[in-house]
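Key result, reporting period 2: structure in, sequence out.
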């Protein structure tokens, strides 16, 4: 395989994995009806309360929403955080430490600007990004004129970056560290020790820890630890840490476009000022529905049950093959395709032979320190359909690759 060229332009940095997949498969007719496991789009049932509530507030589409959100939404979010992370109960000020977002992606992107402004005199800003990673992080770094520094997250370090191996000079010019836990694509969990290390570095070198926790509610049995509860445990403060959350995965509502950012009060204030002129507000009816969604856990448990059924199917069909392991969090499989020509070749084979669409790992990563793309031998498989569809797709995958 030809070595991947180094990335030089904004276009390269923001190349969408899904656009690349579409291009890869464009000329290949599938031999069976397509089954798409490439997209992390939950297919869980829409919570029953959503429709009536939306309707009850529909006239509020006629008003501009406040950028800081309505008080009941911020309150519902702070209360959810207190229930989910008991050490945070009563500790998150909904007035000063919570902002609603139109899904977490726009927040993960736009937060880089106030993070950059905090260190305005830094002439060579760096943004630390695990590799592989969610693509918005690199887009943010590029847009802020900062250097994206990709931190390898290989199997040997539990698919998470080794934060003990960072250079002092790099840390001094860092404006933000993105840390995704549970991680996309490998479903790895940052334990409290790793979170504590990230927080300590952010405080020592005065940068922001951007904790992307949008998969935190998709777990098998033990809820993953959070960055804010860990931060609070170190000095009873949320300084230098913000967590990004979303209803997209937790509530199976990716089309609602609703999430939040919470944490460090002075950063939230700066981000709020920036957002007030530069970012989209969350429509009022969506804010009401979101408050109800954060207050309800029943539909979330139903979503988890769906993923548990899918993982049981995957256990049955994939155990002992393709380096299969159940991820600790999220709904992705990260399958080893080294024996099938690598991730891209396997994605083509699967599409052509059986209509199963999976995402080559290469598209989610950049060249690592060893000059290799850490995703080159993998495909990401999203178990977001019902168990029947999941079974059909994985059975086709096994029949094709053996
Ligand atoms: C790791 C990660 N972060 C953030 C997002 C953004 O999700 P949303 O904007 O729907 O909250 C996604 C979506 O797939 C993701 O995988």
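The corresponding designed sequence is given below.
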């Amino acid at each position: 395989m030809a070595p991947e060229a180094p990335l030089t332009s904004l276009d390269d940095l923001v190349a969408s994995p899904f656009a690349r997949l579409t291009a890869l498969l464009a000329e290949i007719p599938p031999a069976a009806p397509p089954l798409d496991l490439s997209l992390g789009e939950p297919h869980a049932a829409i919570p029953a309360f959503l429709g009536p509530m939306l309707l009850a507030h529909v006239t509020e589409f006629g008003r501009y929403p406040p950028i800081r959100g309505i008080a009941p939404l911020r309150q519902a979010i702070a209360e959810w955080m207190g229930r989910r992370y008991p050490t945070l109960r009563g500790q998150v000020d909904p007035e000063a430490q919570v902002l609603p977002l139109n899904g977490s992606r726009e927040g993960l992107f736009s937060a880089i600007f106030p993070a950059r402004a905090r260190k305005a005199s830094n002439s060579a800003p760096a943004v630390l990004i695990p590799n592989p990673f969610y693509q918005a992080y690199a887009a943010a770094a590029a847009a802020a004129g900062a250097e994206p520094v990709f931190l390898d997250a290989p199997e040997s370090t539990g698919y998470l970056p080794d934060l003990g191996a960072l250079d002092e000079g790099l840390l001094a010019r860092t404006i933000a560290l993105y840390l995704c836990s549970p991680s996309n694509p490998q479903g790895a969990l940052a334990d409290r020790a790793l979170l504590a290390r990230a927080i300590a570095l952010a405080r020592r070198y005065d940068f922001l820890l951007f904790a992307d926790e949008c998969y935190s509610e998709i777990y098998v049995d033990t809820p993953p630890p959070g960055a804010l509860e860990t931060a609070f445990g170190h000095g009873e403060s949320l300084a230098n840490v913000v967590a990004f959350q979303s209803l997209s995965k937790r509530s199976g509502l990716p089309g609602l476009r609703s999430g939040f950012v919470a944490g460090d009060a002075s950063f939230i204030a700066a981000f709020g000022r920036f957002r007030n002129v530069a970012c989209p507000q969350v429509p009022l009816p969506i804010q009401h529905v979101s408050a109800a969604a954060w207050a309800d856990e029943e539909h979330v448990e139903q979503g988890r049950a769906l993923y548990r059924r899918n993982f049981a199917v995957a256990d049955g069909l994939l155990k002992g093959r393709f380096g299969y392991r159940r991820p600790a969090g999220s709904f992705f499989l990260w399958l080893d395709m080294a024996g099938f020509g690598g991730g891209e070749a396997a994605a083509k084979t699967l599409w052509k032979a059986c209509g199963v669409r999976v995402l080559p790992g290469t598209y989610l990563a950049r060249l690592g320190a060893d000059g290799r793309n850490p995703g080159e031998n993998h495909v990401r498989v999203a178990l977001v359909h019902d168990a029947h569809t999941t079974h059909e797709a994985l059975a086709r995958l096994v029949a094709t690759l053996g």
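Residues 1-7 have pLDDT under 50 and may be disordered. Residues 148 and 244 are 20 Å apart (CA to CA). This case is discussed further under Risks and Mitigation.
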